[in-house]
Amino acid sequence: MYLASLRVYSWDTGVYHTSGGGMRGRVEGAPALCVARRGKRMRARKARRHVAAAVVGIGLGVVAAGSPALAAGRAFELVTPVGSDPDVRLGGGAATPDGDIVCFNTERAIAGSTPNGLVTADDGFCSRRTPSGWTTTWVTGPTPVEPLGGRGGQVYFVSPDGSRVVFASDLGIYPDYRGAEPGQGTASGTLSAFMWDGGASPRWLAPTANPLPERRSPVEPAVSLEREAVAVSRDLSHGIFVSSLGLVPQDTNDTLDVYEWTPEGIRLVSRDQAGDAVGGFPALGTDAEQTLAEPGSVSADGSRIFFEHTGSSLAGSPAGVKSVFLREGDDLTLVSPRRGPGPAMDVTFAGATEDGSTVYLTTEEQLTNDAKRAGAALYSYDVASDQLTLLATDDSDTGVYFLGSSADGSTVVYRSGLAQLFVLRDGQARSLGNLDFTDTVPLLDSGASSRSDKRAMRISADGSVIVFASTAALDDSPGGVRQIFRWTPAEGLRRISRDAADTPPVTAAGFGNYSTVLPGFTRQSTLNTMRFRPNLGRGMSDDGSRVFFETADPLVDSDINGFIDVYEWHNGTVSLVSPGTQRADAFYHDNSADGTTVFFTTEAQIIPESDRNTSRDLYAAREGGGFALPEPAPRCEGDVCQGSVTAPPVSTLPSSSTFEGPGDTTDPAPLVPRHTVARLTAAQRGVFARRGRTVLRVRANEKGIVTATVTARIGRRTVVVARSMRVARSGSTASLPLTLSRRARTVLRTKRRLRLVISVSYSESETTIRQVVVLRG
Q1: C-beta separation of 43 from 62 below 8 A
Q2: Of 302, 493, 478, nearest to 413 (Cα)?
Q3: I want to staple 92 with a disulfide (CB 3.0 to 4.6 A). Which of 105, 145, 461, 606 is the partner?
Q4: How far apart, in whole angstroms, are the C-alpha atoms of residue 609 and residue 619?
């Protein structure tokens, strides 16, 4: 495979020249493009795009990508196979910690896979980086001759060394597995867990000799009945799934049970001292679509498995209520002991530390003698010392909701009541402020779920960094637009999805690799089967010093495309990961543990020499990366360019001598791109002054990007106080919302007057239209 070479281009009198190395973020000496004749306007417009693209080292059309491509010195690499048409899924796949292997799902046949005949059915692939490029392997095959289900195969988990991949498939990979639901024949398949470990065929992790339909009683939680992997150990050698089938002789009940796969085969987890199945389930909440157990359900080494059980079949568990147990080999431990006055109520597993030494529980029952309020409380249980501790309590109807913990257990994040966000670190609780209602909607997808959305939160292993997305008005953010926040003990809470001028956000920022059905997010998808799957992307480096997110707001000057781009926050500085000049959205996929490699998907042809399709491809932005571009076709020289000699045509009268009509015609003059800006009325200026917001309307006669930049003299400096960008359709009017920065509003409020200069540029024209507006407070 051939990927981006280390070249940067500049424009000079119609010819592209290679610039010297060491270029970082600008084109040295790039002259202004002054074109007088109409015939050159199209070339001039394309040249302006190329010059702008060279600013970040990425070309459009015939210009190749350069490196260092970004301020961080990353080069672009095409990960999906050259010549393929993959259409990579949003929200699926994962990368290894070193960034040398990355997995993804597509709906199309690539890399030697066989078409499954179903447009909506996925296949999973993993790409490995080699000295000459990326090579891709089909890991969810083989596809059976007669596929059963309609969802295909999807990658869920990848081991750190990339040698194992756990995936789910409903296609019926094994011939003896019908996987059909009763009354539906073979038209509907059941998802089951499989493992690819480099062999020709995958290993079936949840085999059923007699694939009967799953069964359950109405009182059981609405967890998925399909045998998908819901939690795994770090190396994937151990993992759990649920089933109501009798997969082992000791399972004779008709209820859900927890099973574990091991290198030796499967074994029953929810069993009593005699080894008989008693029923149990991992902590999946009540969302039937959710296929990811709570963090810590399986310890990193696979030795400890936590599950919930209802009833008195296991020692210490009262009848009719839920309790939490730990399975460690043949040993079973009750980790939700009841040592308070009662009465007995359900206790739910909320999470555990990476090694399984500390368990977090939520319940409305008073488990200890420490007084608690009426709502649900948060407890911790130390396995080694058998110590149960009340961590937080609240008297609201929702009580306390556990949101996550660090791997070492030093830091816990929870929500108290409907909104207030807390960090509990080293025994001290600190409030980070109130969340927005949309931050607390269950799963942000299903109103029937009791699980709050935790997909947009990451906590470093030592608890020193917490990153999350919220629409709340935190850290002086105006609120109402989803933004990215970062907390540390020393610096407190900071909004990091902002530009240097602290311009109020216009569009949402996204954190993590997942989609939602609700508006207000960077990626909205109503028919994405990966919405509830476990691969959400790391989102930040392991130490939290680098954070990756996506937004359509131009946070740096080199972001000129008006599309969604991937950004990096690093030590207080925001920079682009994706080019910022591509003509399509770019979405975050995953990153390496140190953050030096970032994966993203886009429909743009970032490396046109290798990427020749317009479907969604997977790219890597890698520090010190880049590969040689394919050699161009040899150019002809001399008489070779003339071609073969042919006989002259037979002489005929010129067509004009025989034409009968109203007269000669002339070619129409080419359309000159123009844009106009509607002036703000007195009423609009009054609202702008009072509320700090207005809408500027710009009309363009060709499709392009219109950008409005508002500057003001504050103190001794001219600063940007508002900015907006929109794509204008041909012959239509684009509405650009403008919101004054907090600093500008303060000056207007104190001095009662603020002079603004509004500059509106248009990507298809050299003209910038300026308006001067005076606001009076």
Answers
A1: no
A2: 493
A3: 105
A4: 14
Residues of the chain with pLDDT under 70: 1-72, 115-120, 145-149, 175-189, 209-225, 285-291, 440-453, 515-522, 524-535, 631-671
Other beta carbons within 10 Å of 407? 17
- Here the tokens at position 606 are 């970032």
Contact assessment for residue 285 and residue 348, using Cβ atoms and an 8 Å cutoff: no
> CA distances (Å), 106 to each of 90, 154, 230, 351, 575, in order?
9, 9, 21, 32, 29
752 alpha-carbon distance from chain centroid: 44
Token output for 244? 């109501």
- Summarised one tens digit per residue, pLDDT across range 625-645 is 998 877 665 666 665 555 555
Give the pLDDT confidence of 174-212 residue by residue, as tens digits. Answer: 755 544 443 333 334 577 899 999 987 889 898 875 555
On whether the CB atoms of residues 91 and 532 are closer than 8 A, the answer is no
> Is residue 202 within 8 Å of 196, Cβ to Cβ?
yes
> 375: Cβ–Cβ under 8 A, 6 or more apart, which residues?
364, 393, 394, 395, 396, 397, 398, 399, 400, 417
Nearest alpha carbon to residue 352 among 374, 373, 335:
335
Average pLDDT, the chain: 79
Q: Which two tokens stand for residue 90?
A: 């949003």
* Among candidate residues 432, 538, 537, the one with its CA nearest the CA of residue 488: 432
Q: What was the pLDDT predicted at 516?
A: 65
The residue with tokens 């319940």 is: 363
Q: Which amino acid is at 630?
A: P
Q: In sequence order, which residues have a C-beta less than 8 Å from that of residue 482 and are 6 or more positions away?
A: 438, 469, 470, 471, 508, 509, 510, 520, 521
- The pair of structure tokens assigned to 74 is 């990353």
d(CA 356, CA 353): 5
Query: Whole-prediction pTM value?
Result: 0.74
| Helices and strands, counts by H and E, the chain | 4, 43
By C-alpha distance, which of 64, 25, 46, 12 is closest to 607? 64
Are the beta carbons of 151 and 191 closer than 8 angstroms?
Answer: yes
Query: How do strand 305-310 and strand 265-268 relate by DSSP bridges?
Result: unpaired
Number of Cβ within 10 Å of residue 277's Cβ equals: 26
Query: In degrees, to the nearest 5, what angle opens at C-alpha 600 toward C-alphas 599 and 603?
Result: 145
| Residue 453, number of CB atoms within 10 A of its CB | 19
- Per-residue model confidence (pLDDT) at position 214: 57
DSSP 437: G
Distances (CA, A) of 31 to 10, 38, 62: 9, 20, 20
Tell me the CA distances in angstroms from 708 to 317, 724, 725, 735, 762, one per residue in order: 65, 5, 6, 10, 9
